[in-house]
Structures are given as C-alpha cells and as structure tokens.
TrEMBL record:
UniProt protein name: Xanthine dehydrogenase YagT iron-sulfur-binding subunit
2Fe-2S ferredoxin-type domain boundaries: 1-75
Oxidoreductase among keywords: yes
CDD domains: fer2 (cd00207)
Source species of the chain: Sphingomonas jatrophae
Keywords recorded for this protein, A-Z: 2Fe-2S, Iron, Iron-sulfur, Metal-binding, Oxidoreductase
GO molecular function per UniProt: 2 iron, 2 sulfur cluster binding; metal ion binding; oxidoreductase activity, acting on the aldehyde or oxo group of donors
C-alpha cells in the first residue's frame, strides 16, 4: 500500500485490518501519535487526513491510501516550530506530553473547520459569516482530546493565542 505522510510517499505491506495508528507507529516509525485508549475516546492519536482531524486508532490504514496524512512530526517547517507548537511551549500547554501530539493536530484541524464555517453544538449564530473562537467554542471543539495531567489552561491559552481573534 502507498501512503502520503507528512508530504513524503511511503509504502508498507500491512494486514487489511491494521489501523492507521498502528501503520504510522509500527510500520512507518512515526511514533508521535500516541495510542491512549485505542477506542477513539481520548484523542491522543489524532492526525490530519486531507486537512481533517481523525482518530487514527479507529481508522483502517487501507482507507487512507494515497491521501495526505499529517502527523505531529509534519507540523514544523524544518527547524522552525509550527506557531501552535511554539505557543504550547510558551504557555506550558503540556506536562507529561503524551496527549500533546493529538492536541496539536486536533487544534489545527479545528481551526480549519472554523475557517470553513463548520458549526459546533455551541455555535450561537449559525447564519454568521465567521464563527468566533470564544471560550465555549474552543473548549467544545477540543472536548474530544483529553489531558490526564490537566494542562487544559495552558492548552486553551496556546490555541487561543494562535487561532482566536479575541481571548478565549
């Protein structure tokens, strides 16, 4: 099977039942995405596929052949961190760091959803041209990513600084 991961074409022979997460970690050596619950409940395995965030533990690798997959390893531009990665460092958006790759990928996917006008359950005005990334909107959209250490204040501050027009 052929995959496009972080801009590079990669091939792997895997069982058709192999999850995308297991492909990335065990077959392609990209261990940034973490296996937390392996049930899609914690978000530690979140990656971007064609710009959309998904839980890679619930996805079969075979479904994502020839699609653009971005993991946490693909966020930085060479030695320069992605602005969200830099904000996580500045705001102490991590403690143990286990959830951080999923948090980063999920937040980037979330920002794209907002830019495309995709509402959430708490979006107040469905007819508005833009959706403000306020406190409630940010927390609702990131609710699928859990942090066992409780570093949520730093995580929210980093995301708000990077993507919000006004403080969350």
């Amino acid at each position: 099977m052929r995959f496009i991961v972080n801009g590079a074409s990669m091939e792997a022979q895997v069982d058709l039942r192999t999850s995308l997460l297991d492909l990335l970690r065990d077959h392609l050596g990209l261990t940034g995405s973490k296996k937390g619950c392996n049930q899609g409940a914690c978000g530690a395995c979140t990656v971007l596929v064609d710009g959309t965030r998904i839980n890679s533990c619930l996805a079969l690798a075979v479904q994502y052949q020839n699609r653009e997959i971005v993991t946490v390893e693909g966020l930085a531009e060479g030695a320069a961190l992605h602005p969200l990665q830099a904000a996580f460092v500045e705001h102490d958006g991590f403690q143990c760091g286990y959830c951080t790759p999923g948090q980063l990928c999920s937040a980037i996917g979330m920002a794209d959803e907002i830019a495309r006008g995709v509402p959430s359950i708490v979006t107040a005005d469905l007819s508005a041209e833009t959706i403000p990334l306020d406190h409630d909107e940010l927390r609702e959209r990131m609710s699928g990513n859990l942090c066992r250490c409780g570093a949520y204040n730093g995580i929210v501050a980093a995301i708000a600084e990077t993507f919000a027009k006004e403080p969350a």
